[in-house]
Amino acid sequence: MPSSRSGGPLPFLDHLAADSARFRTVLANAPVDARVPSCPDWDADDLLWHLAGVQWFWGEIAERRLTDPDELEAMDAERDERPSDRDGLLAFFDRSSERLHRVLGELPPETPLWMWSDDKTAGYIRRRQAHEALIHRLDAELTTGERTPLDCRLAADGIDEALRIMRGHEPDPDLTHVPVSAPVTIATVDAMHSWTVTPVRITGTWNGREIDVQRFLVSDGPDPAATAEISGSAADIDCWLWNRPTEGEIIRDGDQEALASVDAVLSDSID
Fold first, then answer.
1. Cα–Cα dist 141/155, whole Å
2. pTM for this structure?
3. CA–CA dist 55, 66 (Å, integer)
């Protein structure tokens, strides 16, 4: 992934701390009834409660060294009730955020922990939570109109995660995948990295249920077989993949059918 190719591994814990702190600063003084434009069902306090709860959940898993998914329901039942005011929400966020950062910092990255992804380690939870904080920091800034730049290398890693883990597919003997269009190259103009994605339809039985979803086969770099290209800054492409507004222009060139197939994968729900 990009984080290991340019300047060494990304300091995910540092990014988690910095973006969590920025998130808190922005929302601490936001009007209570301020709506979150990127999450229109939420107001500022809903957004604060959401990230506080996410960081509590993963901090709890890390602190308990939990690996058994059967323990999740009992663990989640111990979550605090939502505080009734902003001060209570901020206090809960502070406790949750401090613990998450501290406990993940104490664990070797290879420590086994429960995770919904194939990578069930503390290292991946560090990565996932750094990106969670980044995107919700942006949500907070959009709520108050105080948008600041996203870190280029972290955004490039966010693209990699979104394509490979959130929307990617690895061939599986129990599943069938069929390409629905030619490949498309996704290129950053500032992070000096690109990916080629092939939209595929996946069918079969997975975990005891029938599935029919659209995902990407992903490879690094351009591919001569690609019939279209999507390009922009790493920050803008990361925002686009997470349905957040971009600051600059994303350029879409080439085969319109292939570009539409990419859009279809991004609009398909993630279970």
1. 16
2. 0.93
3. 15
Domain range for residue 27?
2-148
CB burial of 164-194 (b: ≥16 within 10 Å; e: otherwise) equals: bbbbbbeeeeebebeebbbbbbbbbeebebb
| pLDDT of residue 41 exceeding 90 | yes
Statement to judge: residues 45 and 159 lie in one domain: no
Tokens of 189: 């103009």
Helices (H) and strands (E) in the chain, counts: 8, 6
Residue 60 has pLDDT above 70, yes or no: yes
pLDDT tens sequence across 152-171? 999 999 999 999 999 999 98
Residue 269 pLDDT? 60
Alpha helices in the chain (DSSP H): 12-28, 44-64, 72-76, 86-106, 122-144, 152-161, 234-241, 256-267
Question: How many domains, the chain?
Answer: 2
* Residues in the chain, overall count: 271
Q: Which H or E run includes 216?
A: strand 209-220
Q: How far apart are CA 138 and CA 46, in angstroms?
A: 15
Amino acid (one-letter) located at 175:
L
Helices 44-64/122-144 angle, 10° precision: 170
